[in-house]
């Protein structure tokens, strides 16, 4: 597993149910700094998360200063609906994984497969377990680059679902050498236009309750 290198990534974490957010709650009450050199509140990301009570009802920002924060499974996107924009992710094996329901938009993914000594890299490991589950990973208008051979992902569940839309890979409106389907696995599912539309729509896939509009500006 390779590392997540934080350069300009600004991570905002709100540890209360988004349905309880009201328009009156517009002030950030606490900012937590994570800095590996010891110049912040905590050295490790998990320490910062653990410091926030589970019944928290206030806006809390966790800011990650530049550094290498993880040597395994860079981003665990395990549960819930999330929106990532203008982010940078780097790794080699399963470095975006879980059973979450996110949209990654206008983000950069750097695959460091060359560090594996000849082995193949895997960008995602998505854990959807049945047709009834609504989760899946959607990469929209992203840039995927790096060194060495890499798979877009591997199945971490019986019904794993990952869509790269209008990015450098995949066959749905994508371009570049990675869009060649001739060496794809035979069991890959080709989605209909309606299915693609459902997945790539921020409103229909992750924002049904309009919770994104209730986020703070910063």
Write up what this structure looks like.
The chain folds into two domains: 1-72, no CATH class; 73-218, Pectate Lyase C-like (3 Solenoid). It contains three helices and 15 strands. The protein is mainly β and 218 residues long. The strands form five sheets. The chain has a four-stranded parallel sheet, with no helix packed on it. A four-stranded parallel sheet has the order 6-9-12-15, covered by helices on one side.
Order of helices and strands: EEHEEEEEEEEEEEEEHH
Measured as a percent range, the helix fraction is under 10%
Distance between the termini: 32 Å
Q: What fraction of residues sit in β-strands?
A: 25-35%
The CATH class of the largest domain is: Mainly Beta
Low-confidence stretches: 1-24
Question: What spatial form do the alpha-carbon principal axes imply?
Answer: globular
Query: Helical region count?
Result: 3
How many domains would you count in the coordinates?
A: 2
User: How do the strands line up in the largest sheet?
Assistant: 5-8-11-14
Instruction: Look at the helices and sheets and give the structural class.
Output: mainly beta
CATH topology of the largest domain: Pectate Lyase C-like
pLDDT averaged over residues: 78
What's the CATH architecture name of the largest domain?
A: 3 Solenoid
Rg is 18 Å
Number of strands: 15
Give the biggest sheet: 4 strands, parallel
CATH homology group of the largest domain: Single-stranded right-handed beta-helix, Pectin lyase-like
């Amino acid at each position: 597993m390779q590392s997540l290198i934080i350069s300009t990534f600004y991570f905002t974490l709100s540890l209360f149910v988004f349905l309880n957010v009201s328009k009156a709650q517009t002030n950030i009450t606490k900012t937590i700094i994570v800095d590996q050199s010891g110049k912040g509140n905590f050295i490790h990301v998990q320490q910062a998360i653990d410091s926030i009570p589970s019944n928290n009802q206030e806006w809390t920002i966790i800011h990650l200063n530049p550094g290498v924060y993880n040597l395994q499974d860079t981003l665990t996107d395990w549960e819930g609906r999330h929106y990532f924009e203008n982010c940078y992710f780097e790794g080699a094996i399963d470095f975006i994984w879980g059973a979450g329901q996110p949209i990654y938009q206008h983000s950069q993914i750097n695959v460091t497969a060359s560090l594996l000594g000849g082995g193949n890299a895997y960008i995602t490991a998505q854990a959807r377990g049945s047709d009834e589950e609504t989760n899946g990973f959607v990469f929209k208008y992203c840039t995927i680059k790096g060194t060495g051979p890499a798979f877009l992902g591997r199945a971490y569940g019986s019904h794993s679902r990952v869509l790269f839309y209008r990015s450098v890979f995949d066959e749905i409106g994508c371009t570049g050498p990675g869009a060649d389907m001739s060496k794809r696995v035979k069991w890959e599912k080709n989605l209909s236009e309606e299915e693609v539309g459902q997945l790539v729509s921020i409103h229909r896939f992750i924002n049904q309750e309009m919770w994104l509009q209730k986020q703070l500006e910063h």
